[in-house]
Amino acid sequence: MAAYERLQDRMTPVKLLIPILLLACLFDIKTKIIPVYLTVGGIALGIFFTRNIVFSSLGVAIGFLSVWIINNTRLHILGGGDAKLFSVIGSFLGWQITLLSIFLAWVLYMPFKTGEPKPYAPFILTAVLLLVVYG
């Protein structure tokens, strides 16, 4: 029974993160904008529910800075909402999963890349789901 309770405790952040990412997808597809209240609220929830401020803060910083670095190279495919969304992922799942999700979302995005901008949040959600289920 103790193992089940530990698993449930570790799954709580994931259970909160997935609906946030799903809402971000819907907003991104419909308006191409991810609301600030969704990302800032998500970061706050992630920090609160992981109960480790260093773990979450490092995830937030690396999630945002990684996208900032990518955008300051020639690969300018991500917007500010995407950067904040990766910060949300970092606050819940830590910097390691955040970096993997950035890479996996890019790999998933590449076959669909055209000259016009596409909503990126669905690729982020898919990457996180794959990492949570199979990672």
Q: Low-confidence stretches at least 5 residues in length (pLDDT < 50)?
A: none
Terminal Cα span: 24 Å
The percent range for strand residues is under 5%
Major sheet summary line: none
**Strand-pairing-aware structural class:** mainly alpha
Helix content: over 70%
Number of domains: 1
Explain what the structure shows.
The protein has one domain (22-134). It has helices at 2-31, 36-50, 53-71, 80-93, 95-109, 121-134. The chain has 6 helices and no strands. Helix 1 runs antiparallel to helix 2 and helix 5 crosses helix 6 (121-134). The chain is mainly alpha-helical.
Descriptors for this entry?
135 residues, globular, mainly alpha, 6 helices, single chain
Task: Write a brief structural summary.
The protein is an all-alpha fold. It has 6 helices and no strands. The model has no long low-confidence stretch (mean pLDDT 88).
